[in-house]
Amino acid sequence: MWFLLTILLLLSNGLTEGGVTSTYVRKAAPSVEIPKECFPRPPGYNAPEQVHITQGDYTGTSIIVSWVTPLKEQPKLVTYWEADDKKGITRVRARSRTTTYRYYNYSSEYIHHATIRRLKYNTKYMYELGKGNGTRQFWFTTPPESGPDVPYTFGIIGDLGQTQASNQTLEHYLASGKGQTVLFVGDFSYADVHPFHDNEKWDTFGRFIEKSSAYEPWIYCAGNHELDLAPEIGEQVLFKPYKHRYHVPFRASQSTSPLWYSIKRASAHIIVLSSYSAYAIYTPQYRWLKQELPKVNRSETPWLIVLMHSPMYNSNNYHYMEGETMRVVFEPWFVKYKVDLVFAGHVHSYERSERVSNIQYNITEGVSCPVKDPSAPVYLTVGDGGNIEGIADSFIEHQPSYSAFREASFGHALLEIKNRTHAFYTWHRNQDSMAVSGDSIWFYNRYWFPKEETSSNTLT
Ligand SMILES: *[C@@H]1O[C@H](CO)[C@@H](O)[C@H](O)[C@H]1NC(C)=O
Ligand SMILES: *[C@@H]1O[C@H](CO)[C@@H](O)[C@H](O)[C@H]1NC(C)=O
Ligand SMILES: *[C@@H]1O[C@H](CO)[C@@H](O)[C@H](O)[C@H]1NC(C)=O
Ligand SMILES: *[C@@H]1O[C@H](CO)[C@@H](O)[C@H](O)[C@H]1NC(C)=O
Ligand SMILES: *[C@@H]1O[C@H](CO)[C@@H](O)[C@H](O)[C@H]1NC(C)=O
Ligand SMILES: *[C@@H]1O[C@H](CO)[C@@H](O)[C@H](O)[C@H]1NC(C)=O
Ligand SMILES: [Fe+2]
């Protein structure tokens, strides 16, 4: 690898301005979905399935548990206890709200969402769903209380779908054993690429991710494949399956929509945005973000992280410039408030940007190009979960100066926050063993330690 990269550097000297295009390109192969029957229901009568959890409040002492039961609404309870309490003597119950929806000729089963509140920080809990021979047990660990030097590790996965490659991505992430919470940057099941948006694919996806999502929170962000707009079959309500199945604690951050919200988790303040909802001035999303950013307390949560689906900096021919309008609206705030990292998906490849900004633009002077900016975020495109649509293997030739590293592979990323100044970031391509990283860099916090970073793939 190093040898190849060195050759590449010698050949391209003077052509690029520091950016690296990896010579590794995943073999373009058809991405076939795993058949539905390979995602069987769990055994037992009316057994809860598709279990997924997410943070349930602003600060991390609540969890939203979601699951589906096929036959009946009952039981609507989640029972939980501290894992240290081996016999489960102090069991507590929380009741779920149950919903169903119809999509064309599909009728959902019973979808339950229960919020467990007033949990202790940094504590492992067991929880139980269902009854009789359909009873199932899971567990989760609450995050430590927010604080400037609290270590915490996030996994970053995007555009996952349900193919063999998707399974590789998720297995690989789980095998690392490092991730404590998944930041999921959108495009879940890809049900919408099937005739009539075959919503059974939402069910199989829920079963597929359960091995991770039942045990650690996934922070959900909506992508274009969550829109499920199909007026030709009478389906005009945007995000209908997604909003029924994946609940988020948006009210806790004074948001008016589940499509944009924020949470504090350990030493990170995470802002989730919607690329497919209005964001221009006066819109609800714009107003919410405007009041949210000044609230971020970098003494409490030094790391300011933004999730969105469509990347603002992308040098792939796929989805080129689709994030441009949101960039024009929000980028000046990202720089003003010193956002550390922006994670996006959508493009089925991997790319990491330099710290650049392009906020000089005004139409009278025509000044508009990305410049190095120590207050700017690094933009990471991690749309490489490996879904049915295949790899985005067509990068724009002559890598633009804003692009630091790019590679046409599937994989996932890990962000290991160490303290208020340092976070170790790695990206792992599916082909390598977990110990190998295709890209790695020590990120320095923009508020506490705004030093320039160098990565394993910086060849200057
Ligand atoms: C599970 O319970 C249901 C209803 O209580 C019963 O009909 C079924 O036979 C049981 N299945 C097994 C494998 O015990
Ligand atoms: C829904 O309609 C399509 C097309 O008519 C059909 O192929 C499919 O089997 C139907 N599904 C259900 C659940 O009825
Ligand atoms: C996913 O991969 C794991 C590990 O290789 C394997 O055990 C499992 O059966 C796969 N899941 C599916 C649905 O193919
Ligand atoms: C920010 O958080 C710190 C540490 O928790 C706290 O002492 C301080 O009062 C907070 N600042 C504001 C403006 O709330
Ligand atoms: C437009 O850009 C020019 C050159 O950078 C600057 O002098 C001017 O103040 C800008 N105008 C506005 C309205 O931002
Ligand atoms: C923060 O973490 C980095 C990496 O582990 C370490 O080198 C540095 O000394 C730490 N800073 C403090 C103040 O502990
Ligand atoms: Fe997408």
UniProtKB/TrEMBL annotation:
Residues 376-433 form the Purple acid phosphatase C-terminal domain. The keyword Chloroplast does not apply. Its cofactor is Cu(2+); Mn(2+); Zn(2+); Fe cation. It comes from the Eukaryota. Its EC number is 3.1.3.2. Coiled coil: none annotated. Residues 153-350 form the Calcineurin-like phosphoesterase domain. GO terms for molecular function: acid phosphatase activity; metal ion binding. Residues 1-18 form the signal peptide. It catalyses: a phosphate monoester + H2O = an alcohol + phosphate. Gene3D superfamilies: 3.60.21.10, Purple acid phosphatase-like, N-terminal. CDD domains: MPP_PAPs. Pfam families: Metallophos, Metallophos_C, Pur_ac_phosph_N. Keywords: Glycoprotein, Hydrolase, Iron, Metal-binding, Signal, Zinc. Residues 48-142 form the Purple acid phosphatase N-terminal domain. Belongs to the metallophosphoesterase superfamily. Purple acid phosphatase family. This is Purple acid phosphatase. It comes from Tagetes erecta.
